[in-house]
């Protein structure tokens, strides 16, 4: 029984002294940023221990505390695997239990970076404009109380304390899959600060740094059977291991709070992170090419009955669909980053998606579609429409999302939809009489669709929505050639 096996323990001496607070310490950051940061610290020193913060539940803290906050990262390639014990996390705090502990960690002068993976919905912004949503319930609460609940609330209250103490701000490093994630979090933080104290907002605007980043590594949620299998393999019980693909890429705009001098960030450049002046082309490439087709696979793959990404791309109708959507609809929509051949990047993506060792569930990626669609699919669609380029495949993804978000699959079986807008989306599906009315009602959701885009998409999305019911996913994809 795994639980009777000895737990992991720290091998490399005492926990590292913290320099980073990370909001939203989930599997992704532990399999990605934490490993780069540990490598950088090992190579060039500095105190860069990570204090993780769970904003929602205490689960990660409960799992990691009995094993001194160390965990296993297992790399799953085709054929080879490798194991590593990651020891860079020095503590994990559960925000709901002790908000004061989180604010003190963020206010500690040794904290020079607060990084975030709080998912798209954690920014409390309006997905269609990218600006703070002041009516968001968490933001309304954070305006009233000194103990925050949202990520922007924590950032603003902690920055206020640092200003009051005469300390420089920390660098805010967003690591979520959002376009211009640095600008977005900056806008949200300054927007919230302005509602609390205009002087604070002006100080953050002047002194704060919010570099944009592009993050990439496929890290499926850890499943109970993975935990058991790892315990049998190693003879040690790790309650919170992470499993990831070999590939990784981190591109960061090199703009950290200058007051900390050479101690402003770990030496990430020495361990393969690309530090650049402009992240935008990398973000476009990754969000549109990887995440855009990931969402396509999530909705179309799920509706076609496939459990994982690898199963989906093994279905013979999907590879031609993906190749065509990259070549004809996505690649022409943006400028390649310097020196990158986008066709090669697309071929590599297909190979990454096909990795059978990564059991990445379509249902997992399908989550929070209302927050993901704008930057993954709709931006590309909008650019294609204005350039007169074909978009039939991306239109198919939008129609598939509508079926999925409505809460039943193509045979009428219920789907466990996870989305902050789940109630609204389900009621659209339940309270409309026919397909045309339903599609029109989905397109009317202004948080997701801009009115111009909605009216341009209406005829084609309605047609494909109906075709999916009649011909099924495979039939529709086959007819696209
Ligand atoms: C995925 C991403 O769950 C999702 O929405 O598309 O988490 C994806 O695996 C990563 O962005 C890959 O870097």
Topology:
Layout: E1 18-23, H1 27-31, H2 33-44, E2 49-54, H3 59-64, E3 71-76, E4 81-86, E5 89-94, H4 99-107, E6 113-116, H5 137-144, H6 151-164, E7 171-174, H7 181-196, H8 198-207, E8 213-216, H9 224-234, E9 242-244, E10 249-253, E11 274-276, H10 280-303, H11 309-314, H12 318-330, H13 342-354, H14 362-366, H15 369-387, H16 392-405, H17 422-430, H18 435-443, H19 451-480
Parallel strand pairs: 1-2, 1-6, 2-5, 3-9, 6-7, 10-11
Antiparallel strand pairs: 3-4, 8-10
Could you give a quick summary of the protein structure above?
The chain is of the alpha/beta class and 481 residues long. It is built from 19 helices and 11 strands.
What does this structure look like?
The protein is α/β, with parallel strands linked by helices and 481 residues long. Helix content is 48%, strand content 11%. The mean pLDDT is 96. Bound molecules: D-mannonic acid. The site of D-mannonic acid has 9 residues, from helix 10 and helix 14.
**How many domains?**
2
Give the second-level CATH assignment, the architecture of the largest domain. Answer: 3-Layer(aba) Sandwich
The CATH topology name of the largest domain reads Rossmann fold
Please indicate the percent range of residues in DSSP E strands (runs of 2 or more): 5-15%
Give the tally of β-strands: 11
Shape: globular
Largest sheet: 5 strands, parallel
How would you classify the helix and strand content by structural class?
A: alpha/beta
Unreliable residue stretches = none
The CA-CA distance between the termini, in Å, is 51 Å
Gyration radius, in Å: 22 Å
**What is the helix tally?**
19
- Any idea what the CATH superfamily of the largest domain is called? NAD(P)-binding Rossmann-like Domain
**Percent of residues in helical segments?**
40-55%
Strand order across the largest sheet: 5-2-1-6-7
């Amino acid at each position: 029984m795994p639980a009777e096996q000895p737990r992991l323990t720290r091998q490399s001496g005492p926990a590292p002294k913290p320099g980073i607070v990370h909001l939203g310490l989930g599997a992704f950051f532990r399999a990605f940023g934490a490993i780069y940061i540990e490598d950088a610290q090992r190579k060039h020193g500095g105190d860069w221990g990570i204090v993780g913060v769970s904003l929602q539940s205490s689960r990660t803290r409960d799992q990691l505390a009995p094993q001194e906050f160390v965990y296993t990262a297992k790399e799953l390639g085709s054929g080879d695997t490798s194991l590593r014990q990651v020891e860079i996390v020095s503590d994990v705090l559960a925000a709901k239990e002790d908000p004061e502990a989180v604010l003190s960690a963020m206010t500690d002068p040794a904290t020079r970076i607060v990084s975030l993976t709080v998912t798209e919905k954690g920014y409390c912004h309006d997905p269609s404009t990218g600006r703070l949503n002041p009516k968001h319930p968490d933001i309304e609460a954070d305006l009233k109380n000194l103990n925050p609940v949202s990520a922007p609330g924590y950032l603003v209250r902690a920055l206020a304390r640092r200003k009051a103490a005469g300390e420089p701000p920390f660098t805010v490093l967003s690591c979520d899959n959002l376009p211009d994630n640095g600008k977005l979090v900056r806008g949200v933080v300054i927007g919230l600060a302005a509602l609390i104290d205009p002087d604070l907002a002006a100080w953050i605007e002047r002194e704060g740094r919010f570099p944009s980043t592009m993050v990439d590594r496929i890290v499926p949620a850890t499943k109970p059977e993975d935990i058991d299998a790892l315990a049998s393999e190693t003879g040690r019980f790790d309650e919170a291991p992470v499993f990831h693909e070999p590939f990784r890429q981190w591109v960061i705009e090199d703009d950290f709070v200058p007051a900390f001098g050479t101690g402003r960030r770990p030496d990430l450049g020495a361990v393969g992170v690309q530090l650049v002046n402009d992240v935008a082309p990398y973000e476009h490439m990754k969000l549109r090419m990887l995440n855009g087709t990931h969402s396509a696979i999530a909705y179309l793959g799920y509706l076609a009955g496939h459990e994982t990404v690898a199963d989906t791309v093994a279905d013979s109708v999907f590879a031609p669909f993906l190749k065509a959507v990259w070549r004809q609809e996505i690649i022409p929509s943006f400028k390649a980053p310097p020196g990158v051949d986008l066709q090669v990047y697309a071929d590599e993506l297909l190979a990454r998606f096909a990795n059978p060792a990564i059991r990445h569930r379509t249902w997992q990626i399908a989550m929070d579609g209302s927050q993901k669609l704008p930057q993954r699919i709709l931006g590309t669609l909008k650019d294609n429409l204005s350039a007169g380029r074909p978009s039939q495949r991306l239109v198919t993804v939008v129609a598939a999302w509508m079926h999925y978000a409505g809460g039943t699959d193509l045979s009428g079986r219920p789907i466990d939809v996870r989305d902050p807008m789940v109630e609204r989306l389900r009621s659209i599906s339940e309270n409309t009489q026919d397909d045309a009315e339903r599609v029109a009602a989905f397109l009317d959701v202004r948080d997701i669709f801009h009115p111009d885009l909605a009216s341009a998409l209406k005829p084609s999305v309605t047609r494909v929505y109906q075709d999916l019911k009649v011909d099924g996913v495979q039939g529709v994809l086959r007819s696209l050639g």
